[in-house]
## 1
Amino acid sequence: MLQHSKAFTFFVQADFIVPLLQLQTDSSLFVASAANQTLAHTLVFFQPGGNGTFKNPGKVERTQTSIGVEEPFSQDYSSVLGTISQFLKESLLPKENTGLHQSQQVLKLLALLLARARQPLRDKLLGTVADSLQELVAAGYSQLTPPLMDIILAAYSSSSTDDCVPDQRVTRLLSSMLNITKPSDLIGAAAAFLRGGRHHQDAVHTARAVRILLLPLHIVTGQTLLGTDTTVEEHRFSISEKLKIKTSCVSMICVCLTHTPPITLMPGDLLPCPPVSILTAVLSLLRIVSGDSSSLSSGCSEVFRNLVGSGKVQKCSLEVLTGLSSSPGMKDKLTEVVTVLIQYLNNPDSDPTVIHKSYQALLKWMSVCEDVSSLTDKFKQDLIDVVKKRVCDMRWEVRDSTVEFLGKLAGVLKQGEETCGALLGGCWSTPLLREALQDPESYVRASAISALAQTLEPSWHQGAAVTQGQTDVVTRLLEILSQDTEAFARRAVVQYFIACADLDWEVKVHTLELAQLLMDEACSGHRGYRKGSDTPPALRHPYAVISARPLGEGAESDVAGALRNLVEQGVVWALLSGLVDCDRPVGLKACQLLITLRDTVCPRPPPGASPATAAASKVSCELPGCGWGREIRKIPGMRRLDRVKEADVAHRTRCGEVGIERTSEGGDSVCVSVCDILSSLGLDEKLDELSQSSDHVHNSALSLLQDILTASAAHTQQDAEPGQEVIVDCY
Amino acid sequence: MKLYCLSGHPTLPCNVLKFKSTTIMLDCGLDTTSVLNFLPLPLVHSPRLSKLPGWVSKDGNINLEKELKECAKRVFVDSQPEFCLPEKELLDLSNIDVILISNYHCMMALPYITEHTGFTGTVYATEPTLQIGRLLMEELVNFMERVPKSQSATCWKNKEVQRMLPGPLKDVVDVWAWKRCYSMLEVNSALSKVQLVGYSQKVELFGAVQVSPLSSGYSLGSSNWIIQSHHEKVAYVSGSSLLTTHPQPMDQSSLKNSDVLILTGLTQMPTANPDGMLGEFCSNLAMTIRAGGNVLVPCYSSGVIYDLLECLYQFIESASLGTTPFYFISPVANSSLEFSQIFAEWLCHNKQSKVYLPEPPFPHAELIQTNKLKHYPSIHGDFSIEFRQPCVVFTGHPSLRFGDVVHFMELWGKSSLNTIIFTEPDFSYLDALAPYQPLAMKCVYCPIDTRLNFHQVSKLLKEVQPLHVVCPEQYTQPPLTQSHRSDLMLELQPPPMPYRRCSVLNLPFRRRYERVYILPELANSLVPSEVKPGISVATVSAVLHSKDNKHTLQSVSKPPPAPPSKKRKRVMEEPPVVQAPKPLLSGAVPLEAFLATLQKHGISEVKVEETADGHILHLQADDTLIQLEADGTHIVCDNNEPLRTTLRDLVLRFLQKL
């Protein structure tokens, strides 16, 4: 409503501003927040533009109303601005009875305002509150640090959109914030400033914030991160003292740590030390936290005891270590990083999450450093040893992470150079994974299967002969698929086979070409058969070329024989499955071939003529109940056929004739006459459809919906056995 | 109250507490680390060990080739291994009244104390401690006697000679306190002096103190002890654990409010978390078996092995080790496995409840039933028929100097497929392996020590709040190798009192009260008068009767009516001076009122002088002084008895008489 100036005038004249201001401290957070939003909106939306006129971008309505009402409207606006400014000024500083709640709300409102305020509104607002803000900063309320930083950042961001230098008052405020005496607030403020991403404009404050955030690491690890830099020296004592208290120590270190990766990416002149030193400090910290302080001569031992064994710091540092891998100049440290990570993997006290994070860090570093050959054989051996130990761990989470790591390691090393092969050397990881296939925990089995897929994939496709080991793996996987009681494992096996199967559409098209050759051989010389290699059928109307050559009875029986051959060779299956393939070129090719086949073996009987191809029409093939078979049967024409055959089968069974029969087991799999299929598939329409670009279907919402429907239908059809509950797993 | 410290080993303590009139020995630990300086005792002839060269000093002056052998650049004593006994010279051990045992690991020196020092007292221990302690001693004797060695090396102990030896032999101390193992006879005699106690049972010692064992959660029947009189309480904390393993959980609350807490037996592996180590143990074991190697676990025949077997029971399936045989070889293997199942009341709650179900508390019974775990008294006999590799063998002794483990070291040491996993924390694994070097076998060190760590003990002490803590000096500083780890030491206020071998500590509390009983008829005769609301006092005249450290006030018996004999008459002529005691005075003399009274009695020339303790009244006319002080009044008056008496009576007017 308040996007119309008339409404605004009404709003002001009805004196709604005052109750809104009161609602700001309502006990309901929703009400208070809504009041804040409305107030901010009121001021910001109708704020005068930089050139002194009212701006209301994008609203046609505004131009109509602003003319003529400008004068009283402007008065209304000024009065609202006056009221709100007065309120801000009065309520910013906490009073005894209201506590900090009101100040927090006012600060939130200010942040909302400043984020979108342009000149002169921003100037007016800052003018009103700058002194009070300074006072608030000086008072040092810890809870107010984050909202104060929000205000500063909001002021910074709005000033940048106006493309002018930051306001002096804001700069001063920021300086005071980066100079608070309370260590946790100081670090909070510095962290907020860097998070705000405003550091590109303000080198002085950015450099200071960086130093503040590095100070605790400097103190704890004794690494000279700050060198001779003394800008934050006055805080050293208070921060040291705070670090000696366990709770504040852990949280402070974690805040500082999480900001180190972005710090290392900053321009060098903002940093007090090369980024590598920060990495060294993180590594030292990791050593300290794992209890290994033997190598450290400097650093504060009173702080060590707060950090030793702290899982939170371990996890945080490992994440940061992962993050640091992409910073400049770090690659030389690979050996040191790997040493620490192996130590973490080896540590009996590392909990599963820590081990998981160590693996992730290791993978990241190995993938970033193209050349892992710089690692000595000792490291490789150490890594192999620790991995071998961890796959035998008592905790399944650890075994799972380890197995997963092996899979990903294969992926990482695949991208790298040949030299990596030595480390990967499937020869040591594959037996471990094969062993893990027997793990009692289904998650581990599933991970082992996927890892195997990743490890064996390269050798699988190189065209090399299949080794005994690979055969064994496949045998074992088939066992899992048929016998495992857990779905995770079975699912992973299926995914494995999918990963191993060739998904390349060109290969599939070539496969269809093979089918075509077989067809050529079987049907050449028959009536109406066009050699696929002679003329691409898609270029002509399929019915246009029909050989006028008369056909004898013998030839007819030959057609039936040829068709039977094609069924036996699997050509018909290949064509049918190709027809419903998700790759359009494959579908197209299959469709073309099927049309050829149809026209050859079972041309439409001319009206009135008796079926000359009776023998061929009796040749049937089996349609599987699932997969492509089901897809085929979903084609509308086929559904009709199914229904007809349902009736037919009853009839024929009575007559002792079997043209379509249900196989004894499965029930779902159906034998259908090939000719019936070919004539029911609607191949001509399908051909037109497939000749079009795939985009028009696949990009539509319809395809998504169909996807969902297919998925759900697939689910019910597969699992809905009578009397068995369908369990939908949401893994 | 004094504490004599006879052992410097923090986890194998032996201290003597003199408390009131009793002398109490707290634990009787045997430091067996001395055996690491000896050559292993092989069960079958070992060509390797017998071919080791003897040691001759570089200049050739000292030739000890018969006593010392060199192996892998270290020198070992070729003799029956010897143990380092608790100090015997610090005090006369025959005066010891009782020995309190806290767990079966801390009683191994018992025969040395009870059999050779003139000890006549009693040993108190819980039943599992006695039974399993007996097993461990029996095993030790068996290990030694099975491989008798006639030679007893003593020349190297000569101070002048020892100085010239290479380390670490050069640096070992108290070598003359080292003794060979006791015999089964001595064991039986020593254990016959043990009296069984149950948790929280109170045992009176000569009426002077009461001792009581509390569950310490470390091993079956392990206990801490409370030693208390009516007004003093000493807590003795030995190996204790807060982890949930098989024993009953630790009783912490009963340790509260002690004047002195003697703290020993903390974990020897403060940086090795038992859970992590157990995981490490299992994964290394599985890794070796999968690779076709054998696993050797040198361990004691009771204790952590129960937990290891329980852990493996769960792990076997997940690591697909179902067909791998587990062998437990010890002269007492069978008894150990069976004993553990019958001490129901000493087990943790979880296991206790299983006793009432048709399943045994420990799952190792099932391992035995399903033939996955087999136990044998030694490698000879049935074992050699059943032995199948790859396998896992649990056997002793963890020092690798004697027992069946020596055989497996010789058998498997040469193959890198095999692994030895150390789980007992008592011995440095590098030292243990030294006489087997060079060794191809993989070595894994997973010391599992469930005793309290520094973090747990600080929390415990914060809760039980003893006034003073006494502990081995090792606990008052960070470990030598990790000087930065200030978290690996005790930091207390007031700081703990450290002790070392041969320290004698005066425990910092004075006994101030003693309980005295009063007989009813005597109590009846008392006439209490109230001095403050709620507080009454009465004088009592009685005879203090002390017997068995119990003090009783009895009425003074009236002299019997004199028989008319001449002899008696003479006695009657000098009757015992039994005068009624003078009444006790209490209260204070108020100065102003007293001056007024003096005035009334005509003494007016009084000069009052204020002193630190009260006032001095100078009666100038009579040259007399009256000193009025908080706890006494003196009248200094020469040669004027009437005045003194008057003054005395005036003073008495202001005081209450009892």
## 2
Amino acid sequence: MNEATVISDNKRAGMRKKPGRYRNERRFVFAFLTPVLLLFGLFAFLPIAWSLILSLFQYNPMSDHARYVGAANYLRMFTDGVVLKSLWVTFKFVFFTVISNLVITLAIATAIQRVRVRWLKDLFRTVFFLPTIAPLAGTAIVWSTMFNYQNGLFNMILGELHIAPVQWLSDPHYALLSVIMMTLWADIGYNIVLFMAGLDSIPEMYYEAAILDGANRWHLFRHVTLPLLSRSTLFVTITTVISYFQAFPQFQIMTKGEPFNETRVLALQIYDQAFSNSNMGYASALATLFLVIILIVTVLQLRLGRTQWEY
Amino acid sequence: MRRKNVWLDTAVTALLAVAACVMLVPYLWMVLSSFKSNMDIISGSGGFWPKHPSLDGYRTVFADAPFGLWLLNSAVTSVIITAATLFTSALAGYVFAKHQFRGKRIWFLLILATMMIPFQVIMIPTYLITAKLGLVNNLAAIVLPNLVSSYGVFLAKQFIEEIPNDLLEAARIDGAGELKLMVRIIAPLIFPMLSALGIFTFMNAWNNYLWPLIVLNDTEKMTVPLALVYFNGTHVVNYNVVMSAAVLITIPVIVVFLIFQKQFVKGLTMTGMK
Amino acid sequence: MRSSRIAAILLCFCMYFAISGCSAGAGSNSSVDGKVKLVFWAHQEDAFVAAYEKQIEAYQNEHPNVEIKFQTFPYEIYNQKLKASFSARTPPDIAEMFGTWVPEYSRHGALAELPDGETLSKEYYPAPVGGYMLNGKLYGLPMEYNIENGGMLIHPQMLKEKGIDRPPATWDELVDAAKKLTVRDGKGIKVKGFDFVSTDNITFSFLSLILQQKGHFWGENEHVNFQTPEAVKAMAALKALVADDKVADLTTFGSQLDISDYFFQGNSAMTYRGPWTIAAGLDNYQVKDFDYVPVPSFTSEKPFFAAESGWGTVVAQKSRAKAEALDFIQFMAQKDRLKAWNLDTFTVPAKKEVAADPEFVKENPYMKTPLSVLQYGQWIGPIADRDYFFKQVNDHFQLIAAGKESVEDGLKTMERAINDSQDNHK
């Protein structure tokens, strides 16, 4: 028994096992891992490989054969005005939404942390978190009616303020902004909770020390809170960026990419090419591009985050 | 203690209260719109408050929409997905954390890699595979691709690795089989992580829109978010009907959330899942 | 061993889903009670759905051995759903399709051919049946003559209040009346004089104005030609309505509601829209204070127009009860059945004998206007990607009307974009 405790490393422990039990364990591994790996294979590994292969073909699923076209799909997207536009729209959407999300959530999280009344604090957190649990598709429908030109809420408010009404979803200047507003409302709750947890984990002594040094409120935030929150911030930023790149229901339900493709993000373009235009090959090539972009952006963020930590 | 500043604290609380009220406006809009009468809407002059409050919208929802069925579809698929994901994640996590076999590192890395893949990338082949399996327009198509979760396996492995081997060895010596070990010893130890994973798996399954949009056709087979969008398509003019449906769908979600709020928040901070 | 037993249960679980999946495909038709089961898909439009349900009931009464399962989808995603189901080889037995979509399916052999198609097709007007024909074979039966031109909705009361005692008879009168009828307030236009700004009507109006000047919009090689003086004049005339006369605006374009909805809500005095919108007014809005009258020609020529093949029904080649399915769509195409269907849905008959039946106009006086212009319609032509074509015209019309693009530049850009798309589909 004593020896067993000393040799707690798996491999050596395994060597010491009785042959019968060893076989038992192997059977266990085999019996359970196989179905799980099969499922992963069928619905994760295989689709990825298939998607890469499909991107080299011209394939309309209605016909029985696909035509090999080499890199043609990849070359085509760099001359495809709609795709280039959708790339631009995607970056614009992700950039503005992430920045405003981070600023708003950090501000709200620090504000809620200041509230000392326990129940009030919980109430605020609940209210801000509430929208995140509703299906995004439902939220998009409700917001569509709020954006209605004739009898929507937003134009009613503008009317009260004697400002000319705005076509929230069909004016090229406002459409993307409208979707951004809705997206922020729908999911700032996540990041508020994450930031609150991050703030909780900063030991009070850092603040006390800084106050003794005569730091003012802004210095506290800038030189104590922000650096000590950088781990949370990096994590929050990466997950937020990835999730906004994949934003789909709000666009598909609220604007369908209109007007003038001003809200046609890449995720919507892939879906439309695949399921409206039956261009599965081209859509797969776009999906590969999509994956590459997300990987590059994530790696860049990690790099950037690391150099900041060192500082 | 930090310096106290009563005025600033009050101002911050007041600002937060205003922001919180703004957050609640869409809910208010949804509820008020659901009580608008068909007259309010057809006249095209509907204000913020319903002029002739009525239950027209709710009446139409209950007459037109197989409401119970939608909730049932969502509930059944989400529960199966959650149960299966917890089961497969915990098991695979256990195997990867505490067992040795050939190709372990490679398999684990492969599973990790799929975490990075957005659904849009694999959506087309997944659809083609589902079609080949003959599962298009079948609730099984919602369940099957979601029985495993790479993130779940990853989380489970991380948490199970921290369980001391001695504990497992002791149980093995007492004659416990691997499965009993899993259920009796490991599951209780990683329970907080499992409940967090469960909550978010359930929520993601419940709210999923893109995949059901692709594979489901029948109104009777739809899950809640998709059905709502379909319903919206038929009642564009009478939006009081759609708002009524939205209210009815939101109420159970909010109730469930308020009950499990603590676990939600804890789970979110523990796993960082969305 | 215990672990392998559980693994077996897991496997059974997967198998269960696989099997239950196979048995429940959309095309299943054999059932326990020996009935033939047909699945029939259509788009959602209250009047259409009700009319189809009547047909189904009548057919089932005559054929007790057949059971038809009717499923409907919102229009925006209907075509996409059809494509997905045909691609997955699980199509419905019978599908309602828009004529312009049909070639994509018939070209890939996805649709069942109707027996004796050549003769059958002669019973219909050329425009509505055009899309259903391929290489002399008939792949479906049109239910309606899709027509967005020739008629408009008007509120006679509004005209009377402005001292206009009859609907406009010339284009100048139309513009004049529209100007008088437009009501503005501080925020912009409150009641539009003449609304045509919808995804269908911008393009159809543009094309018909070209045709009414005896111009053409097709060049060589399946390319469009929008550089003709007629095209420039047509686009300029439409632009003037929004930019100069200000009898309509772009505010409702892209809205979830149709321009006919705004008409019935009283926000427009005259609205250019197909007769199918009459049904919406009578059913949804319960109003009768409107009329459906001819839109005057742009010139002294006849009111020529371009038309697409509209809604009709097709049978999937993959259907396991093809004979019954074909029988059902032919059942609906019988003269009296079709007449009832056209009357219920406020659609214009695609079948000549229905249009010629005096009973038809008597039962639906609103149809007088559309029937009178049927002869001036021509097939819109070989458009490869319908949505793209219309989107180009609509997008550039908006830019032109908003003064962000000149008429000539706009026409040039949309021509190039459309012709690129035409080439891509070859």
